[in-house]
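Task card 7
Instruction: Convert sequence to structure tokens.
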Amino acid sequence: MGDIDGDFSSKMRKVRALMAVLCLWSFISLTCAARLSPSRQKLEVQKHLNRLNKPSVKSIKSPDGDIIDCVDISQQPAFDHPYLKDHKIQTRPSYHPEGLFDESKVSEKPKERSNPITQLWHVNGRCPEDTIPVRRTKKDDVLRASSVKRYGRKKHRSIPKPRSADPDLVNESGHQHAIAYVEGDKYFGAKATINVWEPKIQQPNEFSLSQLWILGGSFGEDLNSIEAGWQDPKEGHWWMQFGNDYVLGYWPSFLFSYLADSASMIEWGGEVVNSEPDGQHTSTQMGSGHFPEEGFGKSSYFRNIQVVDDSNNLKAPKNIGTFTEKSNCYDVQTGSNGDWGHFFYYGGPGRNPNCA
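Output:
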């Protein structure tokens, strides 16, 4: 019996020793994996930055800390898209919409700009001709995304869907809107004058914007959307212009399914992200942070809103509708007069006694 106990004790000691070795090996393996994880992430981030940040002809340091790279126009990041591999750049549209200027709709060579627009980085220089300014993407920009692959991609359901203020949809997406819109026709562009403010943002992961949406298709996976512009009737490209002097670029028509032909809805207005900090509605402002009924001087507005029709003419939109998910937080009111044409006031403060 003693020999059996001795053998058993000896075997148990070996088993314990083996278990200890296995546990130690597992601990070391996990520790190594933990050490490697940040390095792998760093490598992935750096590879992504190398893809995003193109070789520059010149780099300019902005006073706010940004670095602006002057990238050769033919090397810009857009050409990473497989559909643009052999695309020949068009430097200006063939036609402007009738009514955009008091002159022919045929596009001519750009004239000298009467009101040059400056940006903060311009104090330290400007980009040479045949280059485009691109803000250099930094490591922190990529790390703010949920993953490296998600960086720069839009989340679904961030486009306002009129008449569908489903509470579940609002809570799931976190995006809230106050917009005016038109639908039921074919649209080939849109225009507006936007009253710009500096809304206060409560959380770093939230934003507040004012823009227009040009939409084609249905609200699902097949929706096409761009957020400015008009369609050139010759090539079908969607062009973006700021003011009378700045044609900023275009989206080639072959990138789209529905928008290759025309848009089916135009929206103008504001959007915020409500992350519900502390379980309450955000206090992030939309527009000026004032409700529409407070009017001129306090409330933000869009005025002279127009659409481009199938004859390439700018005209006043018909049957303007409005939409907001929570009018006690952000609201919208339309109107029209001789000076402003069709207009609307919009926005709000977010959290308030009626918006908790």
